[in-house]
Amino acid sequence: MDVKNYRENEIKWFILAYMFLLTGIKRPDMIFVTNTDLLSKIESILSSTLLAGVICTLSFVFDCLYTTKFKEILLFLGFTKMPGKTVFTRISNGRLKDIRFETDKAQKHYKHIAKEIPSDKEKRCAFENEQWYLLFSKYKDDNMIKSSHRDFLLSRDLYVTTITLTVLTVIAMTFRIIQLNWIPIGYLTLMLILTNLSAHFKAHRFINNVIAVDLRNVI
Question: What is the pTM of this model?
Answer without folding.
Answer: 0.85
